[in-house]
């Protein structure tokens, strides 16, 4: 069963990003707008989780500047969205981490 919402702690674990980074990205990238629940805690939808993985990929893997990421996200907003779910992105990210760890051992 798919989750409808993820807490900041869950998103932090799934993405490997600290909560303060996620909060900072909300200020930097206007597309990232998690809602707050009745207790005032941030809750992320799958769409926002996918966006976080995309931003992380562009910043960390492809080494774009924050301004470059903004330009790319603005361009992608005009294109049809890919059909890759947040769960699939998470699985692929775990595989990537595993392969990088394996590579370090060689």
Mean pLDDT: 90
CATH class: Mainly Alpha
Number of domains: 1
Q: What would the CATH topology be?
A: Multidrug-efflux Transporter Regulator, Chain: A, Domain 2
Order of helices and strands: EHHEEHHH
* Strand order, largest beta sheet: 1-3-2
Helix content: 55-70%
How many whole angstroms does the radius of gyration measure? 14 Å
Instruction: Count all strands and give the number.
Output: 3
Overall 3D form: globular
Span between N and C termini?
Answer: 38 Å
Strand percentage lies at: 5-15%
Unreliable stretches (pLDDT < 50, length at least 5) are none
- The structural class is mainly alpha
- Characterize the main sheet: 3 strands, antiparallel
Level-2 CATH architecture: Orthogonal Bundle
Helix segment count?
5
